[in-house]
Amino acid sequence: MADEINQANTAWILTSTALVLFMTIPGLSLFYAGLVRSKNVLSVLMQCFAITCLVSLLWLAGVYSFIFADGGDLQPFLGGAQKIFLPGLDAGSLTGDIPESVFFMFQMTFAIITPALIVGGFAERMKFSAMLWFSGLWLIVVYMPICHWIWGNGWLAKLGVMDFAGGIVIHINAGVAALVSAIVLGNRRGFPTTGMQPHNMTMVVTGAGMLWVGWFGFNGGSALTSDGRAGLAILVTHIGAASGALTWMAIEWLRYGKPSVLGIVTGMVAGLGTITPASGFVGPGGALFIGVTAGIVCFYATQYVKRSLKIDDSLDVFPVHGVGGVVGSLLTGVFVASSLGGHGLPDGVGIMDQVGVQALAIGVTILWSAGFSYLILKLINAVIGLRVNPDDEIVGLDITLHEETGYHQLND
């Protein structure tokens, strides 16, 4: 623990906290809301907004403590209870050389965006009450232990897993949960024969742009300092986004004859999600390779899930975030090597050793997230039901769940 506050680091993490929250509201909110049909636009905005509020209070009520407080004998698996409701916190309380209040807020923004990402897997068909119960229980049962294992000095951290900003903790975790949600709820009425195109591409691109900018706080802030490593994390983040976007665009252009706006922004998100675990460990060359790989792999994963498996992961959360997180986390173990321009492997650890640790963490996360997401969904379905009735789904969730509409006729 540092004895004095570092004002430069504090200023940077304060800025990063605002940037990461900006990614959820309004960034992800607008991105997702534009992708759904007009009759469901408000429902998605409402879900992201409500998740932000719910997770913030749960974070204060104990989730933060059980991730980052000392767990004693249980430390490999779970943190302690001494930071529930932050007793004794004041302006002088530090985590490292920044105020603990700032660290608390920064990590909270990560906890907020993770269940918000899952919304894309069940968009346009889940009850609002079920969504709230699922998001809260999932944060506690799934996110909290995995985050502790990797970022709270748990057993996976002790093994040396590298996840700089959340490729495993956030993207794989949320992507798997979204896939399970889509399977348990079933496809939207009419999928895959009925066209379900994004209703507002301007909104999609606006939200995507906010995500791109906000991601600099997401990855750069994860250095927890305002030094060269934070700067390098931002640089490789940008390279990953740009290369992922152009690769996805090029594939569509070659395959369909025209580049699409939806394609280039989806490729950008794939590039960002894939570079996230590697962002503090790899150099520009590694970032370029990771971004291009993300554009290729995530494009074909999207096609496979929707067209071959016919799973209605409504907004492609698993093939973009889940698959991207897997690819990026594995490639982190390769491009971290100093011989490939990376930060360097620990002494005595080879590339294949590190890839093996990464694969173990990926496998554990997939199994934990899939298993407990399924159990939580089944429990909620048995108690209050998960899905709106067919008539409500046809009318749209904006009217049936919230008695509001996103758009009105000009003469209204």
Can you walk me through this structure?
The chain has 412 residues and is mainly α. The chain has a single domain (7-87, 99-402), classed as Orthogonal Bundle (Ammonium transporter fold), CATH 1.10.3430. 68% of the residues lie in helices and 1% in strands. It has a two-stranded antiparallel ribbon with strand order 1-2. Strand 1 and strand 2 (98-99) form a beta hairpin. Helix 3 packs parallel to helix 6 (167-185), helix 8 packs antiparallel against helix 9 (261-275) and helix 9 (261-275) packs across helix 11 (317-335). The longest helix has 33 residues, at 351-383. The model has no long low-confidence stretch (mean pLDDT 97).
Q: How many beta-strand runs?
A: 2
Task: List segments where confidence is low: pLDDT < 50 over at least 5 consecutive residues.
Answer: none
Please give the alpha-carbon distance between the first and last residues: 60 Å
Q: Report the biggest beta sheet as strand number plus sense, adding barrel if it closes.
A: 2 strands, antiparallel
CATH superfamily descriptor: Ammonium transporter AmtB like domains
* CATH T-level fold name: Ammonium transporter fold
Derived structural class: mainly alpha
Radius of gyration: 21 Å
Strand content: under 5%
SSE run: HHEEHHHHHHHHHHHH
Q: Strands of the biggest beta sheet: in what spatial order?
A: 1-2
| CATH classification, class level | Mainly Alpha
Helical fraction: 55-70%
CATH architecture: Orthogonal Bundle
Work out the helix count. 14
| Apparent shape | globular
Number of domains: 1
Q: What does the average pLDDT come to?
A: 97
